[in-house]
Amino acid sequence: MKVHLSAVGTSVLRNSSKDPKIKDRLSSLGLENWDSLSLDDKKQRIIVEYRNELLEYLKNYIRENGEKASAELSALLKAFRKFNHKPEDTKIFLYYTNSPNSELAGEAIRYYLNELGYKDVVLAEITKINSESNFYEGMVDLFDKVITKLIYWKNNGYEIFINTTSGFKSETIFISIAGLMLESTLYYLHESFNDIIILPSPPISIKPNYVKIIKRLKEEGYVVPLSRAEKILSSDIIRGLEELAIIERREGAIRLRDWSKKFIDNF
C-alpha cells in the first residue's frame, strides 16, 4: 500500500473565485478574498453559515477543471501517474490548518479524489502556526496528528510519499525531516516545466550524543534545575540544545520542549 501525504492550502478557493458564477456569489456574500482570510476574520463565519452551498460550488468547479483547479490536485494526480499508483492501492492523507476556508478546500478536494476512485482519503486538521507564541504548540499538534501516522505506516510496511509542493513553510519542513528519517520519498511539482521532481532523500538520524543527552534529561524528569543541569551537562551543551530548540530555560530550570519529548519517544 502507498500513502501520499499533502498539505491543503486555499488555491482552489483563489482559482474558483475567477469563475463568473462563483465570483458573483462570493461578491454577494462579501467573500471576494475568501482564500486569504485570517483565522479570526469574521468572514470565516459566513463560510460556516453557507458551507454546503459553497462546497457545491467548489465540487462543480473542480469537476469542470480537474487537476488545474488546485495546486494540491495538480501535484497529487501528476505524482500518481508518474509512480503508477492506482486508486485501490493508494491512501491519501491531507492536512489543513484549523480555519473554515481551509477545511472547505480540503473537503472539496477529498470529494473529487473519491470520485476518481481514491476512496481512502483522510483529512486532518492541524493548529495554524501564525505567531512565535504558538509555534511549538503547532509543532506538537503536527506531531500528534501527522507524524505519528507516518511512523505507524512505516512500521506497518506502507510506502510513504510526501508532496512538498506547498513551499518553504515550517510545517512542510518539519514533516519532510520526519519523512527523511523514515526513508520516505519526497516529491515536488516544479513550476517551470510542470512536472514531478523526486527530491534527493538521504537518510538522516538524530546524533547519538543528542539522543543520549535527551534520554538523560528524560530520566531526570524532563524539568531539571539549572544548578543540577550544569553538573550533568556542560554550559556549551546546554547552550547548543537551546539554540536547537530542544530545550528551553525557564524559571531557573531547563525543560525538554514537548516536541522534543515526542520526537525522542517515537524515533
CATH architecture type of the largest domain: 3-Layer(aba) Sandwich
Secondary-structure element order, N to C: EHHHHHEHEHEHEEHEHHEEH
Helical fraction? 40-55%
Question: Could you say which structural class the secondary elements and strand pairing correspond to?
Answer: alpha/beta
Question: How many strands appear in the DSSP assignment?
Answer: 9
CATH topology title of the largest domain: Rossmann fold
Count structural domains.
Answer: 2
Protein name: CRISPR-associated protein, APE2256 family
Domain CRISPR system ring nuclease SSO1393-like: 68-201
InterPro entries: SSO1393-like
Secondary-structure map:
Blueprint: E1 2-7, H1 11-16, H2 20-29, H3 43-49, H4 51-65, H5 71-83, E2 90-97, H6 100-115, E3 121-126, H7 135-155, E4 159-163, H8 170-181, E5 185-190, E6 195-198, H9 208-219, E7 223-225, H10 226-232, H11 235-243, E8 247-250, E9 253-256, H12 258-266
Parallel strand pairs: 1-2, 1-4, 2-3, 4-5
Antiparallel strand pairs: 5-6, 7-9, 8-9
Give an overview of the whole structure.
- The structure is a single chain.
- It is built from twelve helices and nine strands.
- The protein has helices at 11-16, 20-29, 43-49, 51-65, 71-83, 100-115, 135-155, 170-181, 208-219, 226-232, 235-243, 258-266, and strands at residues 2-7, 90-97, 121-126, 159-163, 185-190, 195-198, 223-225, 247-250, 253-256.
- The protein has a six-stranded mixed β-sheet with strand order 3-2-1-4-5-6, sandwiched between helices. Strands 7-9-8 form a three-stranded antiparallel β-sheet.
- Helix 4 packs across helix 6 (100-115), helix 7 (135-155) packs parallel to helix 8 (170-181) and helix 7 (135-155) packs parallel to helix 12.
- The radius of gyration is 21 Å and the shape is globular.
- This is CRISPR-associated protein, APE2256 family.
